[in-house]
């Protein structure tokens, strides 16, 4: 389960829904101020200052050290000893990942293992994370590993505009079914929406259980996408009409409310399914404006997720020169349903420029979940919709560093506004904790214009001499994806059978790897690809590496 807080004031405290437990991860992304010397992250019992702090993480750049401590009425003894890696620098981005284990907090920074801190106070009493100090904080993400059976708290309960995304693979253990329940209590005595695929008769049963009694079943479906072995991407949003469910990017069913949607507090998953991730999305407030303190850099991506409402006519995404929705606009992206067009423009000194008009993409025509990505280049923006290249917009002046915020306004459910930055290749990153069965890793990127090949490796070390458990190597000219392993410096036998070649020069790609007991399953752009049986001991896998002719962003670990 994961959810993200993207509007971060400094200082501020944020509730950890469901509390802490072994395996939970907290990811804080930000940037140290120019001239900044110190900031702090506290895992604490209450929202206010002065409460118990189970873990105080305090990078002090002026002293080139990271102070760790705890607070219970008084500060305890500081730990300032040598760290494995120091990832912080003035006016530089950071991504801190804190992994909770039974015995300690493990801290990773910018892909490196930084330091460990043994528990002094019970992590079960931690309910808030607090950020403060000389840094901009972009967003905070909370991640749980989800496996069936699962019951989790929905942050802030469900309501119109909120959404849940579930990605996974249907398994075949003989139970023949799995179910997703939107519940009004943790025990499942009251179920507002029961979504129940059944393999044997290719049915998806929907129902509710109110007052302890099941209601009338609904079974009509357009098709059955839940065969064993299939990857699925389910997106369910609470609309005015009911629980509206999309499967693999297309509308699937709508289930009218039989009780108040605000009563839904938990989600449960059980049965024949391996879950990659469960993401909860809040609807942003109207006319939201998200700051980009450092300004856009070359290759930065702004991602906006949402749904264009069925009865809506227009919304807009604007990139501003200042952290103010009334400031100059470097890019105005404006879908207009009544005209079946997207209008792109700029605004300087209050005056609009010449419009660029494009056809309205099908996701906006059909009221489907959209993922809009805008890549910044020195003299243009490249725009993608649901992974596909849509258009480019020539900048009226250099856009680098001058874009300071992004705003969204109009009639759309907006669920995420996120800034991503390219990693420098080759990029090595430590896998948090240890590789376990059903460990999922996601890589996103684009292929460069003159690309010949690129690769993703699961490695047994952090340099080029390390053994490689999986070498996943798309070769553009050959239209092949070569898989291999390397042990003691020697490459082994290549595998290159494939159902298709799924990589296109202009489009975004997502590669998902799932480590299982005897194989590594691969998925590309939401579809099954190939399996690669283990040749090396999977327990030795500790790093990922990306390299080649592609633009990669930070990998994600589920």
Seen as an oligomer or otherwise, the chain set is single chain
Strand order of the largest sheet: 9-8-7-3-11-1-22-13-18-19-20
The coarse silhouette is: globular
Radius of gyration: 24 Å
Tell me, rounded to a whole number, the average pLDDT: 94
Report the structural category. mainly beta
Number of helices: 1
Low-pLDDT windows of residues: none
Largest sheet: 11 strands, mixed
Strand content bin = over 45%
Percent of residues in helices comes to under 10%
> What is the CATH architecture descriptor of the largest domain?
Sandwich
Number of domains: 4
Number of E-state strands:
46
| Name of the level-1 CATH class of the largest domain | Mainly Beta
Compute the separation of the termini in Å.
9 Å
CATH topology of the largest domain: Jelly Rolls
Give an account of the 3D structure.
- With 558 residues, this protein is an all-beta fold.
- It has four domains: 142 residues, Jelly Rolls (Sandwich); 132 residues, Sandwich (Jelly Rolls); 133 residues, Sandwich (Jelly Rolls), CATH 2.60.120; 131 residues, Jelly Rolls (Sandwich).
- The protein has one helix and 46 strands.
- The strands form seven sheets. An eleven-stranded mixed beta sheet has the order 9-8-7-3-11-1-22-13-18-19-20, with no helix packed on it.
- A hairpin with an 8-residue loop joins strand 25 and strand 26.
- The model has no long low-confidence stretch (mean pLDDT 94).
């Amino acid at each position: 389960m994961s959810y993200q807080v993207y509007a971060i004031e400094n200082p501020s405290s944020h509730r950890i829904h469901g509390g802490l437990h072994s395996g939970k991860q907290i990811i804080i992304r930000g940037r140290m101020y120019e001239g900044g010397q110190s900031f702090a992250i506290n895992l604490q019992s209450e929202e206010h200052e002065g409460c118990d702090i189970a873990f105080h993480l305090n990078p002090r750049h002026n002293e080139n050290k990271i102070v760790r401590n705890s607070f219970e009425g008084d500060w305890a003894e500081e730990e300032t000893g040598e760290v494995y890696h120091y990832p912080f620098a003035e006016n530089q981005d950071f991504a801190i990942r804190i992994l909770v284990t039974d015995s300690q907090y493990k801290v990773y920074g910018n892909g490196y293992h930084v330091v460990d801190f043994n528990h002094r106070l019970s992590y079960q009493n931690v309910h808030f994370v607090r950020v403060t100090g000389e840094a901009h904080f972009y967003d905070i993400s909370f991640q749980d590993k989800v496996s069936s059976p699962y019951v989790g708290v929905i942050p802030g309960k469900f309501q119109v505009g909120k959404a849940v995304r579930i990605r996974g693979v249907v398994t075949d253990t003989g139970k023949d079914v799995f179910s997703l329940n939107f519940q009004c209590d943790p025990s499942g005595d009251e179920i507002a929406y029961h979504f129940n695929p059944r393999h044997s008769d290719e049915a998806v049963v929907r129902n509710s259980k109110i007052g302890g009694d099941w209601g009338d079943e609904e079974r009509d479906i357009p098709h059955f996408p839940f065969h064993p072995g299939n990857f699925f991407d389910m997106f369910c949003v609470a609309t005015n009409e009911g629980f509206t469910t999309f499967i693999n990017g297309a509308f699937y069913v709508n289930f009218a409310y039989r009780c108040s949607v605000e009563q839904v507090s938990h989600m449960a998953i059980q049965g024949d399914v391996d879950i990659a991730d469960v993401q909860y999305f809040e609807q942003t407030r109207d006319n939201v404006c998200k700051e980009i303190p450092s300004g856009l850099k070359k290759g930065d991506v702004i991602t906006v997720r949402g749904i264009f409402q069925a009865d809506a006519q227009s919304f807009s995404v604007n990139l501003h020169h200042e952290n103010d929705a009334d400031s100059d606009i470097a890019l105005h992206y404006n879908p207009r349903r009544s005209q079946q067009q997207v209008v792109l423009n700029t605004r300087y000194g209050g005056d609009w420029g010449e419009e660029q008009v494009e056809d309205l993409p099908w996701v906006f025509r059909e009221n489907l979940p959209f993922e809009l990505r805008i890549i910044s280049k020195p003299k243009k923006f490249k725009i993608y919709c649901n992974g596909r290249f849509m258009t480019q917009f020539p900048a009226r002046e250099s856009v680098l560093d001058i874009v300071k915020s992004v705003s969204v306004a109009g009639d759309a459910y907006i669920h995420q506004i996120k800034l991503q930055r390219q990693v420098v290749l080759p990029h090595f990153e430590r896998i948090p904790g240890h590789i376990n069965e059903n460990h999922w890793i996601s890589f996103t990127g684009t292929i460069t214009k003159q690309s010949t090949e690129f690769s993703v490796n699961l490695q047994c070390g952090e340099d080029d001499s390390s053994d490689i458990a999986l070498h996943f190597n798309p070769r553009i000219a050959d239209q092949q994806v070569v898989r291999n392993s390397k042990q003691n410096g020697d490459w082994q036998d290549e595998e290159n059978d494939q159902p298709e070649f799924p990589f296109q020069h202009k489009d975004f790609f997502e590669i998902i790897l799932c480590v299982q007991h005897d194989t590594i399953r691969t998925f590309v752009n939401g579809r099954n690809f190939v399996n690669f049986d283990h040749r090396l001991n999977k327990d030795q896998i500790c790093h990922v590496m990306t390299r080649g002719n592609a633009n990669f962003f930070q990998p994600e670990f589920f």
